[in-house]
Amino acid sequence: MSTILVTGAAGFIGSHAILALSEAGHSVVAIDDLSTGRRWAVPAEMTFIQGDVGDAAVMRKLFAEYTIDAIMHFAGSIEVGESVTHPLAYYRNNTIGSQVLIEAAMEAGIRRIVFSSSAAVYGEPQRQPIPEDAPTRPINPYGWTKLMTEQMLKDASAAYGFNYAALRYFNVSGADPQGRAGESLKKPSHLIKRAVQVAVGVLPELGIFGEDYPTPDGTCVRDYIHVSDLVEAHILALAHLEAGGGNLILNCGHGKGVSIREVVQAVERATGKPLPVRSAPRRPGDPPALIAAADRITQVLGWRPQYDLDAMVETALEWERRLLRAPDGVHP
Ligand code: UFG
């Protein structure tokens, strides 16, 4: 089996990917700068380098030391709002970081890269569900950093002949069903994470950011995907590239819209208790709806999601309970 370099390995999605890659029989070389990731999220027996993918010296040394067959590139900053207030930090960390990584990878002769892209590349699309060939018009720096990295991969692939998959994530949530990994940011912004924090008493109540959107119940609609299903899409994309398949740009979502109110109801089903919520103003930059056209990923990779909304909420809730039992949010 091959050796996969996983960047952002101590973060939310990376920490799930390293477990799945190991289970699939791959060796993993994990790198994370631990700016938001947690060291304990990478198993002690796994090769781990603390470092920044945007540091060319670190990357050259890594590629000289390890024989890497493919890269899964998760490292990056992920807060849309923060990208608006700190755009240059986002361009440095996400776009320039990716440029340095890709250049070092080319020098090392790497032939396959799977990249974490985002539905944020679409901006505010005219049509739902959103097909992969919809216009890409990001409405925030975060979306631009992802789109620019897709463009670099496309141009570099044409010039140097490696293959890549850019996976455009919709709303990733849930946690490892075996309780080994989950979302552990100190100040999370994601809806399901915050809703389960309210459910366990870490937060007093859930603000619902806007109830006057042009959607069936007035709250924003999103396409939620379980992190384990998302990781499975990466494993399949890697297998596609390893089998000699061409470049891929694929949405990762269910193709099904879920409103904030429906998420609240799912949390209430999981706990059997009402969830304290309050109306709050709209959050700037939120599109009313983002729903993936999800047929291409099924056709190309044979991918089908295994976890529904209830499973996303239940696994996220279980992870939150674990964090609560652990002193200082350290993994129990
Ligand atoms: N929301 C609330 N209350 C909260 C948190 C969120 O009402 O406490 C709402 C948001 O306003 C939004 C919806 O829940 O309408 C989902 O918000 P998230 O922050 O969970 O997710 P986003 O849709 O804003 O962001 C996600 C990814 C980003 C990505 C973006 C666009 O997290 O990385 O989709 O693709 F850029």
Describe the structure.
- Helix 8 crosses helix 10.
- This protein has 2 domains: 200 residues, NAD(P)-binding Rossmann-like Domain (Rossmann fold, 3-Layer(aba) Sandwich), CATH 3.40.50.720; 103 residues, UDP-galactose 4-epimerase, domain 1, CATH 3.90.25.
- The strands form 4 sheets. The protein has a 7-stranded parallel β-sheet with strand order 3-2-1-4-5-6-11, sandwiched between helices. Strands 12-9-14 form a 3-stranded mixed β-sheet. A two-stranded parallel sheet has the order 7-10.
- By secondary structure, it is an alpha/beta fold.
- It is globular, with a radius of gyration of 19 Å.
- The relative contact order is 0.14.
- The chain has 10 helices and 14 strands.
- Strand 5, helix 5 and strand 6 form a beta-alpha-beta unit.
- Uridine-5'-diphosphate-4-deoxy-4-fluoro-alpha-D-galactose (UFG) binds next to helix 6 and strand 8.
Name the helicity range. Answer: 25-40%
Shape annotation: globular
> Beta-sheet strand percentage?
15-25%
CATH C-level class of the largest domain is Alpha Beta
- Radius of gyration over C-alpha positions, nearest whole angstrom: 19 Å
CATH homology superfamily name of the largest domain: NAD(P)-binding Rossmann-like Domain
Number of strands: 14
The strand line-up of the biggest sheet is 3-2-1-4-5-6-11
CATH architecture of the largest domain: 3-Layer(aba) Sandwich
**How confident overall, as mean pLDDT?**
96
Number of helices: 10
What is the terminal separation in angstroms? 31 Å
Largest sheet: 7 strands, parallel
Q: Which residue ranges are poorly predicted, with pLDDT under 50 across at least 5 consecutive positions?
A: none
The distinct ligands, each listed once, are: uridine-5'-diphosphate-4-deoxy-4-fluoro-alpha-D-galactose
CATH topology of the largest domain: Rossmann fold
